[in-house]
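ENTRY TYPE: paired fold submission
RECORD: A
CONTENT: sequence, then structure tokens
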Amino acid sequence: MKIKSQTKRKWRNRFIFVAVVAVGIAAWFIYINSFTIYDHSHLTHRNDFGPVRPFEPMAGTEVPGMVRAAENAYLALYIDEYTTNIAIFDKRNGHTWDSSPRGADSDPIANPFERNTMRSHVGFRFFDEGRRVLTRWLYQDSIVHEQFEIFSIPNGVRLQYSIGNMDIGIDALPFFLEYEYFQYRIMGPAMERAADGDTSDRDLLRRLWHQSRLETHEGFMQMTDAIRDSRINTNSMLDLFYRYGWTIYDTIAANEAADVYVELEFDVFSLSLEFVLDGDRLIVNLPISEFTTESPAQLFDIQLMQFFGAGGTDADGFILVPSGSGGIINFNNGGHREDPFRSAVYGMDFMTTSIRPQVTQPVRLPVFGIQNDGAAILAHVYNGRALATVNADVSGRTNSYNYAWFSFMLRTSQSLNMDGIPGASGDLTVVQEESYMGDITVIYHFLAGDNPGVGEMAQAYQQFLVEQGALTPLDGPGDRTFYLDVVGGIGARDHFVGVPFNTIETLTTLNDANRFVDILNAQGIDAIQMQLHGWFNRGTNHDVAKNIRMMGDIGNQRQIQELDRRLRAAGGGLNPVVNFQTFLWISTTRWTGRNINASFEVARDLSGTHGFRHGGNREALAYRMMGMWHDWRFIVHPGVLPFHIDDFLPAYERRVGIDNLALSDLGDTIYESFHRRCAVNRESSRHIVEEQIGRLYNQIPNLVVFGGNDYSFAYASHLVGVPIEADMFYIIDYEVPFFPMVVHGFIEFAGNTANQREHYDHLSVLLSSMTTGASPRYTFTAQPTRNAQFTPHMRLYSTHYVNWMAPAIEHYRVFNDVYRYLRGERIVDFEILAGSQLNIGATSQVTVTVFSDGTRIYVNNTYEPFEADGVIIPARWFEVRGGAR
């Protein structure tokens, strides 16, 4: 009996153990699958340009060698039926814009491969099954083999390409062909050529094809083994079949008819491309959902319309690039000795690299412009903006042309270091499983008028944004805004009897902020937009913004509301600053992680590692990471951002209760995530972020947006941290205020805070404001900024208000005396009258900014007086002429 009882206990214990394990596994499975992300599929846009019909050429002779495909009152679209090259004829000025340079075949610099790229609308790279990166271009991989069709659509054409069968060798031809089909499809055309005196095709077919002797393929023609054994025979036979219109689809059908299975090792793609006229614009649309292949190949990136509008060495013109505020690259400037211009729209991808550029600014506007021999275009991305990169280059590097184009990163890859594996060393390439599947859409604006320049380019883009509802004109004259950033609490490290601990250092309270307002009001500065940093959830780099825990040392809800009422009564407002896409990494720890699940709500890179970023200031990088924990932030998974907004909105209404908010990252940076079950690419993330800004705007109508990415324009009451200077790429000749030209008169804006510039000079800051229309912006702290020493926030070291109040007041006084009359006016032109180029030193230019009311502001940034238009501009000063003031 004792043995039996022990046996029962043993089996009972085993059953309990198995049951507990099973319940644990089931609970874990339920927990894992309970995580959901926002369904953003409805945000992906796909164009429908109307029914497709056989191509119907129209009468038109403006472009020799091409047929007219569509026209309207402004433009005519022409196409070459043999190469699919297009041309746009502008009826207003008689200028023709070619998609491929007319002299590409005779370019003395370009090699044969480069000439093929110059004749291609599209080039793309892809990963093959072995994770090798391969390249295809339309001309050499499709057009020369006549693997395309042309269709008409309303107001344009649709091109359908098959790309890639030149690289699969003899497998592109069938092993067997039915005798009658062979005679009709292949031998028949060869006999016709023989009748005209060219017997080479007939003789080659007779030598290398014979009737099959196999019982299973009686009545079929068969290739001889000599075709496979000889490279010469292979290439000759491929050329012969391609000449008679043979495609890989014919081969697949023939092999199926002969009941032959051939494992084809090739990558063949189908691609559709649409060109549609819309007023004085050309819409170029590439639907990625129709960019397909039957192979395991994974599309990587795309180069689109690389040479559209290119100008040769004999052309006079320039390229506008969105480098910071804007940059001008003159044609044939010798910049081929430097790196070409290349900059990703909305900045770097923090999920593929943690290296933070110290100098370059993100591209805020997905645009470029080309002026070519007195005519000009402005191009911008409409769909696929967050995937785009702006590229520009000048003649002399690989060809004789000056050109600009957009490329698009559809799928991300990452190399994982495999060192440490016994007997092996190297990198493993990990590729994003799913790519963006919407449309890539680029719109080209053709500018009217005589010799249009930067002003006309800005107005073309501005008009488009107005039509889209993204820009609304401001009211007339009035005091310009003074932007004041106030820093409340920052993360710091203190010590108690030698033991370090993390704490919050209070630099400014709401009582201090009221004192700042008293001083400014006494000097006649009333319209103050105050951005309050570090007011909740552990300071400037706060916890996840799902709930709100105000910091009592800074102030309380009543004080926030009273300060906001005071500022709004004078035309300003109090704007608490919130990060939604990043949060302090310590909030995921066991003791402090009260509102975030790091397993699911943190973005991940392709290796599965949590996404993070840091402030990047050089001082903090000199310390160890753990000592700088207040400057390291996790990145929120874009797919859970809407759920965080769901929690934030009622919490903000309950705990703050004002109609103002400052968004520090939603209009500044785009993140993606490669979580295995719920990846979100950059373009989908842009859609999600834009929708969330709209939701915030509906409940909190006064939004101050940091950064100023174009998708935020429709919701921003103010923009701060916008680019007002160009980045110093060596290929760029001059800087222009293109971004300010687009938004001035529609949204009030300011650049980065003046007193946090690396090299502050009060005259340089003032003259920059006078050139661009950017309002003064300063950062103040009440406590001496030595309190920020040895913290990640040493960048605040020059913010003590005692040192900066007087320069800020003087800056605003001089600026407002001029610009209060120009608040609702557009900047219609900008000219560089004299000065040095960017690539040989700091900007020392004489410029004139022209406004829609006729006001002209001359700015002399040199150290000598300058005379222009009868106006003498003193050294390092400005003069104002014209206008209604």
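RECORD: B
CONTENT: sequence, then structure tokens
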Amino acid sequence: MADDYSMVPAVANSHAVQHWDERPIAPPRPPLERPVAALRRYKFLIVAVVLAAVGAGLVATRFVIPQYQVQTTIWIESQSPMQGSFGPIRSAELVNDQAWVELLRSYRIADAVVRKLTLYLKPEKITDAPLFEGFGLADRFLPGNFELVIDRTRKTWALSQPEVGMNDAGTATDSIGRKIGLRWILPATAFEGSGQTKVHFTVSTPRETAVQWLGRINPYLRPGSNFLNVTLQDRDPKLAALTLNTWVEEFVKVASELKKANVVAYANILTDQLQLQEKSLHDAEKALESFRVNTITMPAEGGPIAAGIQDTRDPVMSAFFQRKREFDDLRHDIQDLEKTLADASTGAARYEATLLISSVATSPGAEALRQAFGTLYKKQADLAAARQLYKDEYPLVRDLIESVNILQTQTIPGFAKQLLAQLKQREAAFDTRIAGSSKEMQEIPTRTIEEMRLRRAVSIADNLYTTLKSNSAAANLAAAGAHPDINVLDSAVAPISPTKNTKMKIMLLAIAAGFGAAIGLAILLDMLDRKIRYPDQATNDLGLVIAGAVPQIPKHGLDSRSPEQISQMVEAFRSLRMHITQAGDAPLSLAVSSPSPGDGKSLISANLAMSFAEAGYRTVLIDGDTRRGVLEEMFGIAKSPGLTEYLSRQADLAAVVHATSHEKLWLIPAGERMSRSPELLASASLPNLVADLRANYDVLVFDTPPFAAGIDAYALAAAAGKLLVVLRIGKTEKRMAAAKLTVVDRTPVEVLGTVLNGVGMEGEYQYYGYAAGYGVQEPEAAGQLTS
């Protein structure tokens, strides 16, 4: 297939030529521009995906069952009546905060509700519910799906479970399913009339059913709040209200039982502790009594000593120190008496000095010594009186002298020594007694401390006994009137309309999911797209400068019905022409090629040449596609002689250059197809042709085959010296273009840039268009070429 070609009318460029150093590049793209462009491109896919999602949502809504929600509110007291009491053991409230929620969701309550309302039984038809009045289960039963056939004519029934092959039958008054653990007798109304009826029902385990209902109940207790809100959802509003009210009643009942058990246990504990404490008080009192009895009197040598207790502490200490002083005095007297006797025996002192010792002067044991001194003094007086009358040889005097000597040397020393011995005996007795009293004095603090400890133990035991007795009485009173810590503020009521109808939600979700999936799919397809669709792919990925952008030609072509589109097309080629004229001085020669067929290079070549001709340049258009070129058909001239004839030296230059309807535009057709065409393009004849044409024309435009066709395009581009690459938006593959441009980089060809062909003037391509209303009406109608 040949490229699509379309010649548009061109007008002379009346603007002066401008020069600039920077080449045009793609404008910066906003972050959402590419996703928006992808959505615009795949809009029909998005619509299809959304419609499919809506259809899926409509199908899903057929399976949605409306849900009814019931609610109740429970007030929870902050503390139990006994919590504020004082004492060593306090009764805390039953549970706190979230523990109430855990109690409400416990199996203790859930199992009781399931059994009470027979929620484990599910008839297939709601109308069959009256047949199951009085239904019950044994401790062990067989769950599963059952079929009951009731024969009203014969007044019999037959029960079967196909899953396990169980069968049972009986009459109207027989219990149904007794051997598999069912306790159930059909009501008499079940056998009214004639014929048979089948009833299908399912029996689940109570625990399994409780788990299911626990998933539907939703208690919520805000931290620090006393209000416990409980909601329940079910398809049957009446059953939901009945179940929730029964659940709350069971909750209050269990809470009351636990509270009473808690308070009774607390009262029992206090009673046991009271008995133990009473025994401890009696033991402490007996210990104190025994101590006081044992320490009221303490026996000791030398006489009784007062007990070391607080009441007799001062007299005992006074007596002890009195004896200590007497002992010290006695010891001093003994020492003085011994010294006096020693001095008297040596003559250093007289025995009369002993009379100065207090023990000799006052002690009853020294009476004989004192009498001996009295006798001595009387004898000495008699001796003095006798000496006045008689001499010492006188018998009376001599007897008196002898009596005095005996008293002084024998009697008095003897009595003094006897007294000394007695005093020493008394000293020893005093020492023993004082030692005993000292020991008793040392034991006084220990006994005093022990007495204080025993008194303190009695006091503590008495206080604890009094407290426990008071708490025990209060606990027994609380146990007698215990009530739960919760109160139901409002009961559940069956709603009239569904609380939760998810049909609209499912539809909205389906639409949202459809849009999301469609957008995601569009973006994913855009990311996986191998075609060039955005300007930055040419600039950033391929490294090409955007020389111009050619708008997409409408399906009906360009004519007088689309003047604005004609203006856009003309201005696009004018802009492209201006870009090329800045690439070098005249004469200008360039090749126009593309990575693959169908990119519109021939359209660009023909219209670019027409634009140069309209601007007054002597322009020659060379059809270098010697394999599939059809430019001669567009301009209505003969196919040959052409390029192949010139290169093969079958015709000269004047013969192959054909004039066109435009006075400034000439065409060299491709000529007859030859198998040697690629070799002819690579021969020295092609540069000679370029040199001859540059000498006679201002602009040379080579329409080359695509790069994918072989070396033709590279040879023509090398001969022309400059290359313009055409990329068709949405058709040219990026990897193909990159591979071919890599080869171009290794040739001595100046790439002027790329022409983006077939762009829609929307999105980021709107920056490559021109303002509407500024088109110039041509004074003369120009020709138009179509493919």
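NOTES ON RECORD B: Residues 199 and 698 are 100 Å apart (CA to CA). Residues 305-480 form one domain.
STATUS: closed
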